[in-house]
Amino acid sequence: MSESAAGLTDSLLKMLQNETFVLLNTVDAESGGPTSSAISWVYAVDAFTLRLAIDHRSRLVRNMKENPLVTLTVFGDHSIYAINGRSVVKSDPLPGVPFEMCCFDVEISAVRNALFYGAQLESAPTYTKVYDVRAAEKLDGQVFSAMQKA
User: Fold this and answer.
1) What is the DSSP code string of 115-136?
2) pLDDT classification of 1: cutoffs 50, 70, 90
3) Strand pairing partners for 86?
4) Sign of the torsion angle spanned by Cα atoms 88, 144, 56, 26
5) What is the domain class of 10-149 according to CATH?
6) For residues 67 and 86, what is the distance between their CA atoms, to the nearest angstrom?
7) 21 vs 37, 76, 91, 131, CA distance in Å?
8) Is 19 helix (H, G, I), strand (E, B) or coil?
C-alpha cells in the first residue's frame, strides 16, 4: 500500500462524476461487525466530498446514521482505492425521486491505494443492469439529478 492522500486524484474525481459502482463498507448497527455492499448511486461533488443516495429499505441508512465512519472501495485507474471518511445526512428524504431515499455526504479523510504491492488492475469490473433498461435509466437520471441538487 502507498501513503494516503487527503482527497481524490483528478482521475478518480472524473471517474466518480460518472456512473460507476463502489463497495460501501459500514459498521452494522445490529451486530457491530463490518459489512460491505455494492452501490451505484455515488457522485463526487468535489475532491473531498462523495455524495451517496441510499434506499431507505437498506440497512445502510441505519448503519451510517448510528456510526458515520465508512470506507468506499473503488476499482479504477489501474488500482483499487480505499476512501475513508465520515458520512453526514445531506437530505432525508431526498426530494425528486419516486421512493424514499436518504442522501449522505461522505467527507473524505484519506484515499489509499489498497492493491497489494507489485500488482496492477488490467481492467475495472463492469456490471449489467438485468431489469428494464429504460426504467433503470429513468430512475438513475432522477436520482443523480436529485443528488446533484441536494
Assistant:
1) SPTT---SS-------S-HHHH
2) very low
3) 69, 107
4) negative
5) mainly beta
6) 9
7) 10, 10, 21, 17
8) coil
- Element (H or E) spanning 54, and its range? strand 49-55
| The three grid cell numbers given for residue 89, joined into one nine-digit string | 445526512
Q: Which DSSP string corresponds to 8-52?
A: --HHHHHHTTSS--EEEEEE-TTT-SEEEEEE--EEEEETTEEEE
Is-contact 86 68, C-beta < 8 A? yes
Asked if the model's pLDDT at residue 23 lies above 60, the reply is yes
The β-bridge relationship of strands 49-55 and 101-113 is antiparallel
Bigger pLDDT: 6 vs 69: 69
Does residue 2 sit in helix, strand or coil? Answer: coil
Residue whose C-alpha cell reads 433503470 in the numeric block: 136
Grid cell 463502489 is found at: 22
pTM for the whole thing?
A: 0.91
- Check whether the bond before 93 is cis (ω within 30° of 0): yes
Cell of 48: 473531498
Per-residue pLDDT, 81: 96
Grid coordinates belonging to 26: 459500514
